[in-house]
Prior knowledge:
Elements: H1 31-38, H2 44-55, E1 61-62, E2 77-79, E3 84-89, H3 96-107, E4 112-117, H4 126-138
Parallel strand pairs: 3-4
Antiparallel strand pairs: 1-2, 2-3
Amino acid sequence: MAYMPKLKPRKRPSTAPSRYQPKKRQIQKSAAFWEHLSRQEPNNAEMTLFGIMCYLGLSYKYTGNGQFILSGMCPDFVHLKSRKIVEMYGERWHLPQEELERIKLFARSDYQTLIIWSKELAPKSREKLYKRLLDFEALPDIVRSTSF
């Protein structure tokens, strides 16, 4: 009888998401999480954006430390009277797909959302950022019609 090597069984295809399709993170928001968030200060990009908004005369409040929670999320800057939100996204932490999801989430609560990416804070693109912020501020408030 001839020697036959033992064959290894085939591996089944993995059902886990590949590294190119990151799975969504679910954060368990415990009391310790909210306490840690309340002590958090704005990062450099958020401070730069806040300075730009102050320079333009926009009265937004920094709420990235959990002072304001909307639909289980903590927006970065809120203007309560005009119901507008400005979110600061970093390319390292956020995916472009998340942008539309966040806008839709806050729109359910009648808030308009503008997302600023950290690359837009570069000095060479500041004029464009100023225009985006002022155009967003000039948008009329959302008015929902209630028809029964």
